[in-house]
Amino acid sequence: MTNTSHSADRELIKKLIPQKDPFVMIDKMLDYSEDSVVSGFTITSDNILCNGSHFTEGGLVENMAQSIALHRGYRGFLNKGKNEKPKTGFIGSIKHATIFKLPKIGDEIITTVTIVAEIMQVTLVTIEVRDKNEVLLASSEMKTIIVDQ
Question: In angstroms, what CA-CA distances link 80 with 4, 83, 142?
Fold first, then answer.
């Protein structure tokens, strides 16, 4: 499949994922295709997953998970329209999670999720988080499971 450029702002994002403020760790969708999504997030000083001047490891993992939810939510939005409720799910496993560098308050991170396999309600993805200069901050492989239909 070819990538088609799509974008979404923070208000639409909040409708597409199950998380609610102050726990939303993505604020834009930069690109979407059937097998990938690219999200963006600018880290602010009032973020609950910051420690001192840095976004935490937990914040990066949550950003990754929400980016996965964004893909599924946007797919539902395209297929079923604006009234589609975001699907609730959970992380089934995290493999090979590596944090190379913690971003700072004010930094924008770009997260790319690529679907490796999808069987029924289980999705296996690879994820990379980079800064605006393309420096790799974190990477992971996650398996997520959707629990409501």
Answer: 19, 8, 26
